[in-house]
């Protein structure tokens, strides 16, 4: 049996690297034949699974330097039918790729905004006068690098190999321990793991509107590993809160906390319980 996995493309993205790692795990565990399906944006990757074009999607959700991938959180909330099956943590080491002879000749640098942001200190120090241009992915940026052009791109060493483009500088991310967390999403929850993710809106912008929801976890000794707010898009200053907690939805204390949380929130969405797997550098 085959199983299709959507990810941000074209081939050579970090998302594809995470998808390949997951495909190998899946193949070992289930003997299913994974097919990787690249999509031109993270939004289109998420829509592909929501509209049943694919079975699974692997998307970035958070980076250790730059924080949340906003589109992933926003669409998870909007689409409302996606469930998290696994979190994968991938080390990210960016390189600067170009056909130019030296750094001094680079005039423009293309990449995904997350990748540009993770290297902003390096870019400021070594290429202070270049124009930075955002693209949908690190490998979409490579399409701008013609032979003899003075453009550069921030992408992975794997992409350099795949597209045969010289590396002008390695490990250019501002912090060496750079990691991105990806979620494997499906239309149903297939696992019960160490973490649970949920999001909610509050009923009113009043004192205690956030304290009450948070207390349901604190008083049961449930540790929150992440809290993130995103604009609700209804009005300025109105927020959604995304929470990852340590525990799963079969645990009585997590079940009790979620039941009480529903009383202190307006809309509550549970995205699933799942394990977190750290991938090593390759
Ligand atoms: O453009 C890519 O290669 C991606 O997979 C996207 C992405 C992201 O959106 O965070 C993934 C990992 C890195 O943090 C940089 C870019």
Automatic annotation (TrEMBL):
Residues of the site described as Essential for prephenate dehydratase activity: 180
Keywords: Amino-acid biosynthesis, Aromatic amino acid biosynthesis, Lyase, Phenylalanine biosynthesis
Xref: SUPFAM superfamilies: ACT-like (SSF55021), Periplasmic binding protein-like II (SSF53850)
GO biological process: L-phenylalanine biosynthetic process
GO molecular function: prephenate dehydratase activity
Amino-acid biosynthesis among keywords: yes
Pathway where this protein functions: Amino-acid biosynthesis; L-phenylalanine biosynthesis; phenylpyruvate from prephenate: step 1/1
Signal peptide limits: none
Reactions performed catalytically: prephenate + H(+) = 3-phenylpyruvate + CO2 + H2O
CDD domains in alphabetical order: ACT_CM-PDT, PBP2_PDT_1
Domain ACT intervals: 198-275
The Prephenate dehydratase domain, residue ranges: 4-187
EC assignment: 4.2.1.51
Gene3D superfamilies in the cross-refs: 3.30.70.260, Periplasmic binding protein-like II (3.40.190.10)
Domain of life: Bacteria
Gene Ontology cellular-component annotations: cytoplasm
PANTHER family the UniProt entry points to: PREPHENATE DEHYDRATASE P PROTEIN, PREPHENATE DEHYDRATASE-RELATED
Name of the protein this chain belongs to: Prephenate dehydratase
Organism per entry: Aliterella atlantica CENA595
């Amino acid at each position: 049996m085959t199983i299709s996995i959507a990810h941000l493309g074209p081939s050579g993205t970090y998302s594809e690297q995470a998808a390949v790692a997951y495909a190998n795990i899946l193949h070992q565990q289930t003997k299913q034949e994974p097919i990787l399906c690249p999509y031109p944006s993270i939004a289109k990757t998420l829509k592909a699974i929501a509209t049943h074009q694919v079975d699974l999607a692997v998307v970035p959700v958070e980076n250790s330097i730059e924080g949340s991938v906003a589109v992933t959180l926003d669409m998870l909330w909007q689409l409302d039918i996606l469930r998290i099956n696994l979190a994968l943590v991938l080390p990210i080491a960016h390189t600067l790729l170009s056909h130019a002879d030296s750094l001094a000749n680079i005039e423009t640098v293309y990449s995904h905004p997350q990748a540009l942001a993770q290297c902003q200190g390096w870019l400021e120090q070594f290429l202070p006068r270049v124009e930075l241009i955002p693209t949908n992915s690190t490998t979409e940026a490579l399409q701008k690098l013609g032979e003899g052009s003075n453009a550069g791109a921030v992408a992975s060493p794997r992409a350099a190999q795949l597209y045969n483009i010289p590396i002008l500088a390695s490990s250019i991310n501002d912090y060496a321990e750079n990691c991105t967390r990806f979620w494997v999403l499906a239309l149903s929850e297939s696992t019960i793991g160490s973490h649970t993710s949920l999001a909610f809106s509050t009923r009113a912008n009043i004192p205690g509107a956030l304290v009450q929801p948070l207390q349901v976890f604190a008083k049961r000794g449930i540790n929150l590993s992440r809290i993130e707010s995103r604009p609700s898009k209804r009005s300025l200053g109105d927020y959604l809160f995304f929470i990852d907690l340590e525990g799963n939805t079969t645990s009585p204390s997590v079940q009790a906390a979620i039941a009480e949380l529903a009383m202190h929130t307006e809309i509550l969405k549970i995205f699933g319980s799942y394990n977190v797997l750290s991938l090593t550098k390759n």
